[in-house]
């Protein structure tokens, strides 16, 4: 009788343990079993959109379900990120973000999300290197010559910004100015489509933009890259040093990543991450990325969150120091 009672208790305990080890709430063991939607924060044809569609095309072959890109443009991709924040964390709605929407803009204006704890980073895809360029006939052949000229004529050198004030272009320039102890006049533009022609037309003396925006003009002999705001040299411009090499530790890169709503089950994160990592390795994804001047730059959930936390805090300090909060 006593033995039967003991066995009964053990069966109850075993059942309770198994229930506790069951799948996370909202997670189905057959995930994915229906189409996955990826929110893209920019309009069709933008580089973020092209990245999203290349990833979706290869990713759906591995996941075994359609992966559909929905464009939700606005606010530098904060519209898409805000929509995603309200979605059910089941893995069927994800987002691709340009990092500034997650690290810079939340410090400038109120949004439904803030630090990286408010969402779930899954995988880093590509770097979009930012560089400082001048016309090919500019008197400065090197970054050292540019700095010397800026010190000799404070405030006289006009530098265009491909994304305007409060963007990564602006923050990189301001960090460089502080470290080099130079006075440069920032000239904001709506984008590289405006700032690069302004550089080539002589309306500004230099310009900060992404490498793919200046690449054809460098190839045509019309422009020269003085330096890249990256941790290592860019393969498209191997002769251009990093700012860090020259003693100015400014490496605030632009990059794209895939993320999901807060509370996404770990099993879903693993499935999505593993599938998209394989998709990133496919030539059909890598070829258009490299042709656009992007660098394939994989990081998993833990590493990309660590990077985001660091960048988020760094941008907070810069936004506050430069008084860039929107009124």
Structure explained in plain terms:
It is a single chain. The chain has 327 residues and is of the alpha/beta class. The chain has two domains: 36-127 and 254-321, 3-Layer(aba) Sandwich (D-Maltodextrin-Binding Protein, domain 2), CATH 3.40.190; 130-228, D-Maltodextrin-Binding Protein, domain 2. It is built from twelve helices and eleven strands. The protein has a six-stranded mixed beta sheet with strand order 2-1-3-10-4-11, sandwiched between helices. A five-stranded mixed beta sheet has the order 7-6-8-5-9, sandwiched between helices. The radius of gyration is 24 Å and the shape is globular.
Explain the layout of strands and helices:
Blueprint (H helix, E strand, L loop, with lengths): L1 H19 L15 E5 L6 H17 L3 E5 L6 H8 L7 E6 L1 H4 L1 H4 L10 E10 L1 E6 L7 H10 L5 E4 L6 H13 L4 E4 L3 H9 L5 E5 H9 L3 E6 L25 E8 L4 H15 L2 H9 L3 E5 L1 H21 L6
């Amino acid at each position: 009788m006593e033995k039967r009672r003991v066995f009964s208790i053990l069966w109850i305990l075993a059942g309770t343990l198994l229930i506790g080890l069951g799948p996370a709430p909202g997670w189905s063991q057959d995930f994915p079993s229906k189409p996955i939607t990826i929110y893209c924060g920019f309009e069709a044809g933008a580089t973020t959109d092209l990245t999203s569609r290349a990833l979706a095309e290869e990713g759906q072959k591995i996941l075994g379900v359609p992966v559909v890109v929905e464009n939700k443009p606005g606010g530098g991709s904060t519209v898409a990120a805000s929509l995603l924040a309200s979605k059910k964390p089941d893995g069927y709605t994800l987002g691709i973000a340009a990092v500034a929407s997650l690290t810079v803009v939340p410090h400038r204006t109120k949004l439904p999300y803030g630090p990286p704890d408010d969402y779930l980073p899954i995988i880093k895809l590509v770097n979009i290197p930012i560089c400082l360029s001048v016309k090919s006939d500019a008197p400065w052949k090197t970054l050292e010559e540019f700095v010397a000229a800026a010190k000799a004529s404070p405030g006289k050198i006009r530098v265009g910004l491909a994304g305007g004030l409060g963007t990564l272009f602006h923050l990189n320039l301001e960090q460089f100015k502080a470290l080099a102890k130079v006075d440069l006049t920032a000239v904001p533009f709506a984008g590289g489509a405006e700032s690069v022609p302004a550089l080539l037309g002589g309306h500004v003396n230099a310009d900060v933009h992404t490498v793919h925006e200046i690449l054809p003009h460098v190839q045509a002999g019309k422009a020269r890259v003085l330096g890249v705001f990256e941790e290592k040299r860019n393969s498209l411009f191997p002769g251009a040093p990093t700012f860090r090499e020259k003693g100015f530790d400014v490496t605030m890169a632009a990059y794209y990543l895939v993320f999901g709503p807060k509370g996404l089950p770990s099993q879903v994160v693993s499935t999505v991450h593993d599938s998209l990592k394989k998709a990133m390795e496919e030539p059909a994804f890598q070829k258009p990325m490299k042709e656009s001047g992007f660098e394939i730059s994989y990081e998993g959930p833990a590493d990309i969150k660590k990077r985001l936390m660091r960048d988020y805090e760094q941008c907070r300090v810069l936004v506050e120091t430069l008084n860039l909060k929107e009124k």
